[in-house]
Amino acid sequence: MTAPLRFSVLDRSLVRRGRKPAESLTRTIRFATEVEELGYHRFWVAEHHAVPGVAGSAPAVLAAAVAAATSRIRVGTGGVMLPNHRPLVVAEQFGVLESLHPGRIDLGLGRSLGFTSEVRRALGHGRESAERFGEQLAELLGYFAGEPGSAVRAMPSQGLRIPVFVLATGAGAGYAAEAGLPLVIAAVRGDDALRRSVDDYRERFRPSSWSERPYVVLSRSVAVAETAERARRILVPEAWSTAYSRVHGVFPPLESAAEVLARQPSGKERAQFERAMQGHVFGTEEQVGDQLQSIVDDVDADELLITTSGHDEDALLDSYRRLARLIPGSR
User: Fold this and answer.
1) Which CATH architecture has domain 6-226+280-324?
2) Which residue among 127, 140, 258, 331 is least crowded, i.e. fewest CB within 10 A of its CB?
């Protein structure tokens, strides 16, 4: 019998215009307690560096705060960008987290680098660092496994079974398959590239002590409201910040949907905004349920990771509340 589909959440601590980053971090922690009560399976945070509109720059630190404020939901990262860190340090950080919150910690790993060359220099890593991801991943898993003959022991990580996931950025799906790890991949309805990536991951998957079979987590932005138009407005603020970043190279704090729609954007900004508004799932509960079912069935996914952000906190929480009604076994 196939296990019920799991619903999880990724929050990036986006900053709202006129507010301090500290408020975004506090909101992330409060949001985690709210979605825990709604029945979501995991709550993940992310890693971004030197981005004005994103407060989440230290995922291990933020995950620790989230885990301390919650009691049941799994807590982790989506993800730690491994090229920016030494594998030993990552193993030690998550060994401490798992030791403090046994059975609740996940480690999602990505291979993205800093957004600009200046940020990459500040982090002390160039583009070549991403090419060593497979080597770094093997080293990290070795610290958890406590491989015989190793001169260095990661404490208190050795022997801990922390679930490890790989984000499908670039060649990420191949690394996940070869290491026998679950895959996290962005899902777009009817995306042939998505199906090819998932099929290739499953064909190349090597069972491991971490996972006996392929496991696919689809990442998607989803907005649910009383009407489709209200759901669409939830997506507008982040879409505008994304569009602005593609034109100007800076991801700004979120503005309200009303402020964004009142703008007179340039031709480039308008084109990027329209592009950023594509590929999301939004609508009423019934409409979203049908869309998600189609996406999940397309690749036989095991889990949905919801990544929606918005300026209107009440509307955003209402969206997650409505979405939670679609979770198998929810009330």
Assistant:
1) Alpha-Beta Barrel (3.20)
2) 331
